[in-house]
Amino acid sequence: MTVMPKPVPPDALDAIRAIVGPKGWIDDPSDMLPFLKDERGLFVGKAPAVVRPASTEEVAAVMRICAANQIAIVPQGGNTGLCGGSVPFEAGDAIVLSLGRMNRVRAVDAINYTITVEAGVILAEVQAEADRNDRLFPLSLGAEGSCQIGGNLSTNAGGIQVLRYGNARDLVLGLEVVLPDGQVWNGLRGLRKDNTGYDLKHLFVGSEGTLGIITAAVLKLFPKPRDIKTAFVALPGHREALELFALARGASGDQLTAFELIPRIGLEFSARHVPGVVDPLERPYSHYVLMEMSSSVPDGDIGQTMDRFLETAMERGLVLDGTVAASAQQATQLWRIREGIVESQKHEGGSIKHDIAVPVSLVGDFLDEASRQVEERLPGIRVVAFGHIGDGNIHFNLSQPVGADTKAYLARWAEFNEIVHRVVAGMNGSISAEHGIGRLKRDVLPDFKSGLELDLMRKVKRALDPAGIMNPGKVL
After folding, report:
1. pLDDT tens-digit series, residues 111-145
2. Which of 57, 80, 85, 229 could form a disulfide with 143 if both were Cys (CB 3.0 to 4.6 A apart)?
């Protein structure tokens, strides 16, 4: 049975426009387009308007009108998501609610090591404000110059420092949320210990806007690193990376901040297409690790710790060659190799992407088995497997064979998803480590979640959003 989209009542649109004013209202098609298409260009939707409220009170007032008229709402931050969760469907029966104008830093409590920010604050600005107060906000990812903290929380973003500081979920102490009926839950508590019942904030973190709209958050801050050492090392293979990781954690006293696996093909892609990227070693190797150790103690012994660790690793045959950055500029150049892998794949034709996680101890098994199966299915396919090996998260991307037809290759996306996801399921892993479910992975989620898990999720959804107006058709 086909359900026809319900048109949005014009009088409801007029009422919403009166709430947000001219600065908060976009209905020109060309101006709306950036809000209607996703980062990868996989989905392009429609909407009668993009609404940009400037305060929590305006968000609540808009939600009350939408609830009364059963108008669907698609909450949106910086729209940098990779699973289509922040754009509307093609039916055009949902309003996009963008939080970009809610961009105030409300408070910094340096003694409590917290910062309170509105949902539309750019992640890089949260980092900068923490730095201005001699503190660290550790969430860091490629889109940090344009993604917004509300979206980061709604998708439980990960990034390069999860190993030491955790996902976005681990960095939030309190939330302010507008519920689907327009009520405002003020849970902006900067408490690290609060054992008074259900921890409601975790319902909304990672829910991708399907349960309510995060409008503000209290986030954890940390001591600012004073001593940082970055190393780029070559390994015999990816399995040695796991031994190296265990050795690094012990040798550093768990001061390991980042530990990223980079295959040779990833370095070659970056050097080929990203200005300024060069191979830092004299000869090629099959695999590399980009790692970082840090301490909040100035002029500490991190440099000596790194040197002792690398010496031991080379004696054991885990490291074949390497370089340690002698300056912040050199460290930035090394990190540019890792960051460039994402950018450079666009220049190598079609790329079928996977954001998976398995137990750290099984990463080697996953890489061997998944690579074998996809290469058997399509000889010449180029496996670009890289990422946060220290927390079991691998970006298992598959670049098309050289000279292949891009459109025909990308038409096999579901086929290769099924192969890779089957390997992940056999290892009790996850098909979405940090990118979420959104629209892209919604239909395959039932293959990897038990019926009971999905039923519990639906019960929570019905309890908070009985009319189903919050980001409908996403996740569930």
Report:
1. 999 999 999 999 999 999 999 999 999 999 989 99
2. 80
